[in-house]
Structures are given as C-alpha cells and as structure tokens.
Amino acid sequence: MHGPASPGWLLVALCAVTGVYCLLRMRSRVEEQRRAAGGEALMGFGMAAMAVPAAAFAPPAWAWPAYAVVFGAAGLRALWAARSGRRHLHHLVGTAAMVYMAVVMAHSPAHAHGHGTSGTPVVTGALLLYFTGYVLRTGARLIPVAAVAGGGPEADGRAAAGWGDRPELARACRLSMAIAMLAMLPTM
Q1: Which domain holds residue 128?
Q2: What is the rounded distance in angstroms from the CA atom of residue 119 to the CA atom of residue 114?
Q3: Most CB atoms closer than 10 Å: which of 43, 65, 99, 146?
Q4: Per residue in 61-82, pLDDT tens?
Q5: 3-state secondary structure (DSSP) of residue 187
Q6: What is the DSSP string of 83-125?
C-alpha cells in the first residue's frame, strides 16, 4: 500500500474520485442504490487513505486498528445485508480485505511490506484471485445501457433513470475499486 510515490498518488486519486462519485450516487431516489453507494463511498475513501505514499504521510500507530474497526463494522453491515441477496457478498469480501490489510499494516515492522518475505500469504493470494475474477467478470459485463433520447419519460410511462441510478456507472465504480484493490494487495 505504501509503494512508490507516483503510482501511489494515482491510486489515491482513483479511489478518492470513486468515493466522491459514490457520495453523489447517495442522492438516488432508489433506497437500495443509496445504501450501496454509502458503503462504496466508505470503501473508496478508506482505500484512498490507505494508499497515501508513506513518504508524504506516515499514519500514527492507532490509525490501522481504527481502520480495522471501521471496516469490521462495515463488514457486519454487509453480512446483515447479505441475508437479502448475494449481491451484498462482494461488499462483504471488500470490507474483509480492508480489515485484513489494516491488520497486516498494524503488525508489520515499520510498515515495510513485501520485503523479506518468502512468498504471497494465502489470504493475500485468495483475495487476489477473487478480485481478479471480479474485475474480469465485471469488465465483461460493463456494456453501456441504451440512453433514453431527450432524457424525458420513457415510452411506457416510467421516469428515466437519473445519472446516479445508472447501473453501468455503479458497475464502473465497483470495477475501479476492485482494480485499486488488485494494485494494493500485492504490496502486502
């Protein structure tokens, strides 16, 4: 997570912009969209904070346990929401990955990740496999939905979806966070 400065800042920017977009998606008229967007905004901003290069800012020792608690609580919320459908399982895996990274960062000497280890830990490898599969599957499904001409009501009387309710934009948001997770996990 605290690798070279230039890719680190690009990762911070990607995650922060994704977090801002997810906050804007919370203005949706659809309650389920608002709830999902709130969790995704938390993930985006949390990932942005974790990706800040250590040369720019070294977080205090209490920050990593705080991240673990915050994302542990978000994981419990995702676990509760998963009762209603498996679409929430991805949020559960994402929060578990954030807790895992925070715990590893809290227990690493001087936060020197990836140095002196003899290979990829099993949990990191499993998360890398999951997020790689998620990125490939979501990327393949990211086909634009036909836009409604004029932006008015559709022919069958339904209101046109607002930009915050468009499923391809929500998928792109989740895809960018999964790609960021793939960039962060190998540094563990």
Answers
A1: 5-187
A2: 9
A3: 43
A4: 899 999 999 999 999 999 998 8
A5: helix
A6: GG-GGGHHHHHHHHHHHHHHHHHHHSGGG-TTSS-SS--HHHH
